[in-house]
Write a structure and sequence with these properties.
The structure holds two protein chains of two kinds. Chain A is an all-alpha fold. Chain A has a single domain (14-36, 58-272), classed as MetI-like fold (Orthogonal Bundle). Chain A contains ten helices and no strands. Chain B is an alpha/beta fold. Helices cover 35% and strands 23% of the residues of chain B. In chain B, strand 11 (311-312) and strand 12 form a beta hairpin. The longest helix of chain B has 18 residues, at 189-206. Chain B starts with a strand and ends with a helix. The model of chain B has no long low-confidence stretch (mean pLDDT 87). The chains are: A mainly alpha, B alpha/beta. Chain A: It is a multi-pass membrane protein. Chain A: This is ABC transporter permease.
């Protein structure tokens, strides 16, 4: 574990910078709603569309709410929903892929054709369709986004299951009387965790974007909710009159989160992939 | 069946469906294994050695299937057991050591838990007891510092040490029969000798019967009590090691032995080699499978038309040869 962590940080400036910046956003999500004196929902008609200043570092919006406070709440929503969607999607995909890969035959065929059907839709279309059918709002947006990720995890989990169960060590374990449950626990899962983690970090950024897109279109978070996508919608009109900050900061937040997670997921893949070369990692002889 | 028989295979047939037709990988193999006996099974690649191992363990998977025969172990026919029952037999009553210990061990888990696991799978030990026994087993296979090995990952051990771990795993539940599938092929010569010495020791302590699959004649001569020669899915000759190696009764055995390089061979002569290839298992010749390559056969019609029956040799009980002209072959070598 310590070796992995060290290897992660040895990835050079980009990795460290990405981790640091992402850390800042996470800190904002954690600290701003608690520590920042302004509330995300309180409207102050005396201070409408104020430009960024010391009192309001990100300015105020069209009804006088502090954008920094809303940015912090928005970070909370985005990061949490991303996490929920990715974890649920990964677990569901893992279950489907594992079943498919181990059962084979008709079960495999049916499950994989369903996954193919889901993947045939552009992800955002699928996400929107599910969200609309569930009624708009953050919970349905989360469900929609989650369903969009499942087939990708299922495909990876299935191919990993097939790869691992064909390994000689699994053959050996079976020849020594290992049953299916223990086989999954002892051999299959430990060997596919890394691939799933890479897939999950890579998906995380796109999930956050999808949630924001739904919010922007009015399908996800509803308008007073300080969700980044919804905030951009609210900021469009002020932006026409020169108040760029209302839409700019939530957009910047997304840009940062997506860029940083994609840099980190690349690095995680390099570190976890046993075929990659770990330059300078001791103990691998 | 002899009284102290542990494993008895009767008329085993295994086939594989291939695009080119049905491949008859095992064609009527029968043998008995006595308690503590060390049986060597030799033959070239494709003779059916591995298919035999899979068939014994009930691990033949589609497109292959065991088409007939029985495998008697401890009074019951393994072929009639359900997969669930069979799982309790594998690793407990009949166990196996594989050729390549590196690929047979899980690289991301420590050695110890992998040994303890086979104990937990087949017995009702507590985790702590299993751990203690596992350390004991690692000591049994003469690994230095067994406690340290318990906590090591496979890549931290040498090839020989890994094979010792595999032996510990295979013998963890004191099986009646141990299948050793070319256990020394992946090791260098000095390590091979050490592993064989170790195997000798641990199976003697436990009275385990061993089926040694190999194409190393030297190993057969060192280790085995009895030898079975396979060719094209059949056992063409069976007998005690000394009798069989000294006086082969089947021309294939004779050719196999003749092609083993000897230290005192004349260097200016080419090493005798058997020409031709084993027959295709999807398109076997009508008579003796070995007839097309047989140095003895010449142009005898009998070999080309009639499959020889396994016959007991005169005056030699426990000796079988599947050749019409065994007497002639014996006369050649005596």
């Amino acid at each position: 574990m310590r070796r992995t962590r060290r290897a992660l940080l040895r990835g050079g400036g980009a990795t460290v910078a990405a981790a640091a910046v992402l850390g800042l956003v996470v800190a904002a999500a954690a600290a701003v709603p608690v520590l920042w004196p302004h509330d995300a929902m309180t409207t102050t008609f005396g201070s409408i569309l104020e430009a960024p200043s010391l009192a309001h570092p990100m300015g105020t919006d069209g009804v006088g709410r502090d954008v920094l406070a809303r940015f912090g709440e928005g970070a909370r929503i985005s990061l949490l929903i991303g996490l929920v969607a990715v974890v649920t999607g990964a677990l569901a995909g893992l279950l489907i892929g594992l079943t498919s890969g181990l059962a084979g035959g008709a079960v495999d065929e049916v499950l994989m054709r369903v996954m193919d059907a889901l993947m045939a839709f552009p992800t955002l279309m699928l996400t929107m369709a599910v969200t609309i059918s569930l009624g708009s709002g953050l919970p349905s947006a989360t469900a929609g986004v989650t369903i969009g990720t499942i087939p990708w995890f299922a495909r990876v989990a299935r191919s990993e299951t097939l790869r691992i169960t064909a390994l000689p060590m699994v053959e050996a374990a079976v020849a020594l009387g290992m049953g299916r449950a223990r086989l999954i626990r002892a051999h299959v899962l430990p060997h596919m965790v890394s691939v799933l983690v890479v897939q999950a970090t890579a998906t995380y950024g796109s999930v956050i974007l999808s949630v924001a897109a739904l919010g922007f279109l009015g399908l996800g978070a509803r308008v007073p909710t300080p969700e980044w996508g919804a905030m951009i919608t609210e900021g469009m009109e002020p932006a026409l009159t020169g108040a760029w900050w209302v839409a700019f900061f939530p957009g910047l937040g997304m840009l940062i989160v997506v860029t940083c997670t994609s840099v980190l997921s690349d690095r995680i893949r390099d570190v976890l992939d046993p075929r990659g070369s770990f330059s300078g990692v001791k103990g691998v002889t | 069946m002899k009284p102290d028989t542990v494993l008895s295979v009767k008329d085993m047939h295994t086939v594989f469906a291939t695009p080119g037709g049905t491949a008859h990988a095992i064609r009527g193999v029968s043998f008995d294994l006595r308690r503590g006996e060390r049986l060597g099974i030799v033959g070239e690649s494709g003779a059916g050695k591995s298919a035999l191992v899979l068939s014994l363990l009930g691990l033949v998977e589609p497109p292959g299937r065991v088409a007939g025969g029985s495998v008697w172990l401890n009074g019951r026919d393994l072929r009639t057991l359900s997969e669930r029952q069979m799982r309790r037999v594998r690793g407990k009553e009949i166990s196996i050591v594989f050729q390549d210990p590196l690929t047979a061990l899980n690289p991301v888990r420590r050695i110890g838990p992998q040994v303890a696991e086979v104990l937990l799978m087949h017995g009702d030990l507590s985790r702590k007891q299993a751990r203690e026994r596992a350390v004991g087993l690692l000591a049994d296979v003469e690994l230095p510092e067994p406690e340290k090995c318990y906590a090591a990952y496979p890549h931290e051990l040498s090839g020989g040490m890994r094979q010792r771990v595999m032996i510990a795993i295979a013998l963890a539940n004191s099986p009646d029969v141990l299948i050793a599938d070319e256990p020394t092929t992946a090791l260098d010569a000095t390590t091979q000798a050490q592993i064989i010495t170790l195997l000798n020791k641990v199976i003697e302590e436990r009275g385990t019967a061993v089926v040694m699959i190999t194409h190393n004649m030297g190993l057969v001569a060192d280790f085995c009590d009895t030898v079975q020669v396979m060719y094209a899915g059949e056992v063409v000759e069976y007998g005690s090691r000394d009798r069989l190696l000294d006086r082969p009764a089947h021309p294939y055995t004779a050719a196999l032995l003749a092609s083993v390089p000897a230290m005192d061979a004349r260097r200016d002569l080419p090493l005798p080699a058997l020409s031709g290839l084993p027959p295709s298992l999807t398109d076997l010749p009508e008579g003796c499978a070995f007839a097309p390559r047989c140095p003895l056969e010449g142009e005898r019609g009998l070999c080309r038309t009639t499959r020889p029956a396994p016959r007991i040799l005169d005056g030699e009980p426990d000796r079988m040869s599947m050749c019409h002209f065994s007497a002639e072959q014996l006369a050649l070598t005596s």
